[in-house]
Model the fold of this input.
Amino acid sequence: MMGASLNGVLAQATFRPEFIWDNRHIFLDGVWLTIRIALVAFALATVLGLAVALLRMSKSWIVKPIMAAYVNVFRAIPLLVFVLFVYYGVAIHFGFSTTAIQAGVLALTLQYSAWLGEIFRSGIQAVADGQRQAAMSVGMSRPQTFFRVVTPQATRIVTPPTGNMFIGMIKDSSLVYIIGVPELLRVSNLLANRTFRYFEVYLGTVIVYLILTTAVYFLFKYFEQRFQLVDVLTSKVRSPFARARSRQLQRLQEAVSENRGADSSLGRLGSPSPNTG
Done:
């Protein structure tokens, strides 16, 4: 009897990489829920964060301090504590009819909106005020100036930190397992406790999170290169997305230079010589 149990323990201690692939359907179920939670919460946090940023720049002596308090409060609370507070404290105490997934999304949205609000505010304020004044001087309204002049430049500035926030959102979505949401970490815990293959299970979990965060990193790296500010009239353009535009503008510049040269030559030929009289 003792030898059989010892053999069982040794069998559990043997590393089996195929165990991860054999239980891939369990990991995939948790991954899809993790992705959905992160996407929904990040989309809501982006919209709310933009509103927070605009209200933070308000000149109202009432709105501005309220938004500052909003940012400071939600950035100060640990996310795990906030998830528990939203689900067990607010929802249950006040009798709100909410699921664990909804509570988790709400907690992630409120906290990340505070961080994104500060990122968006700094990006908008980084655009030179002279460009706003120049746009309005040619007849643009304030909304047109914001969407056509300020927003494209601010987007270029806030893309890298926004990507970091989305990577953080994917990782922090694992904290909703504490309220019973069957996302990746939750299903991994259940699988590990049922099979006692802790190393293989958590190795698979680490690999999945690594794949997700790496994919998001390259996605935002693409956006960063797509929106980066480059001098398209120079011959050395690092961004592959600006090369076609660079070649087009270089040909246009060369054509303009040739026309100017031809016009100046015709002018010299047509002008009377100073010695003729």
The chain is about 80% helix and 0% strand. The two ends are 127 Å apart (CA to CA).
